[in-house]
């Protein structure tokens, strides 16, 4: 007994010591492990940077009543009405959780979605702007989104997993009677894209992977569907919308080459006509006015261009807008004004309207930037660096955006890796990046390694399956590029990224541990097998199409081999790992098993857990505290302060 008590005392002693070493504390809904107290000086220095906001277009209101927008004035993004260009923003929703997808009908009805705690189990609400009353119209349990009002404004289509919790079927909600019915059963993910002008048909996209999707014309009365352009080849479709006369469809697809072109599909002759054959970049979004003007955007080297196509003259013109990323296109009822949300590295997202007659651009919102002088904000330079393999007979080059601080250097470097993996870093407003540049004097390089979207479907496939670690090799070559720049300090490099970018951070810390100072992994994948097993069921097959099927023994063995948990012992540099407890995409277990393994091997980890968040941090207080933590981490392990 005495020996047992002695051993028990020793065990308790060491467990208490371990708990003290980990320095666990709670801050509201945050659990912080090893994260030091945030100095007031840091909080004060961040104050102006965190008091920036942006706005996005949600829809025009009928009878010239202005537009509905989404912006944040308090903790979360909510809906507001703006009656005229430069007008005041009148808030109309007041929730603790952010409002996400929004659709406005031709007669002014609103449908929006929101979840709880970042779970992404979105519920749809019908909202009356006149009375400010709202009603949840979904079951409170399934995942629902993609609202699309009919042209008459009497019903909207949406997708829902309510049938089995896995597949996203297409449903119709009738506004007057509140009747709801399934119009198309799905296996996987299907999305409503566009109603025909007489509301008798619905365009529906079946998404299989970024490389493969199918487009259907669905008859509302009979319930029958016809696949558009069936093919045994893997074809990718993007946006699609009916022409106003109902005789054709404007759609984007890559069936004829590397990039998604804009086509007009004639329903009678069943022929495709390319409208952008000379633009060797992806066409992204497309919308049609009631006067049959077509507006569309292209992604040209990460920057957005906006074009107007006149269907009468068959002429195309480019809209003169600031260089940046642009989305949220929508024509008003007159067909003369096009709404768009413009975001640049120096200015947050704001809403403008473009008049097709006089070609003028009017600004509807003026989002605050905390009193900062945005002229001092740095615009990145597009660079290309050589990597390890060839494209044809030339060395392949990887595109990256380089933010260089003012001054001479040598500057410490943050390598910022996007998620996806089929995502793309595109220069947008980021108060965080501008803080690193202007207050910490740290350079930022954001590469679009192989597998990134925007550079053609061949480039997109370069990291698929057994080629997964080739994208990690691209980071190694970026470190070579950094070492060759006289103004950069190659001995002070930190890698940071979220989601799949979090995996890339962990993999980089494993393969290039001796060349890196530290890493920041936000909601990152640490083991592909456990990730595919535990990610929500409605996502599982979609992710298998990208990463490989862990149910295949050979692929499972490969995925285990390249997973960071398998090689965690190689990480000896400090890590900051951040996670949302309710993440449905990358479960919290992915972060926690990595934290445990690094610590088991004697490594240092700061762990940041937000209990009321999911895949990222959408509440202002959580996003602010994460930034404090990341900056403090950089100061200690990158800047050695």
From TrEMBL:
Specify the protein name.
Peptidase S9 family protein
**Cross-referenced Gene3D superfamilies:** alpha/beta hydrolase (3.40.50.1820), TolB, C-terminal domain (2.120.10.30)
Report whether Nucleus shows up as a keyword of the record. no
InterPro entries on file: 6-blade_b-propeller_TolB-like, AB_hydrolase_fold, Pept_S9A_N, Peptidase_S9_cat, Peptidase_S9A
Please give one Gene Ontology molecular function term for this protein: serine-type endopeptidase activity
Where is each Peptidase S9 prolyl oligopeptidase catalytic domain found? Answer: 428-636
What domain of life does the UniProt record list for this protein's source? Answer: Bacteria
The residues covered by the Peptidase S9A N-terminal domain are: 103-364
Q: For this UniProt record, give its keywords in alphabetical order, as a comma-separated list.
A: Hydrolase, Protease, Serine protease, Signal
Annotated GO biological processes are: proteolysis
Question: Which N-terminal residues, if any, form the signal peptide?
Answer: 1-19
Which SUPFAM superfamilies does the UniProt entry name for this protein?
Answer: alpha/beta-Hydrolases, DPP6 N-terminal domain-like
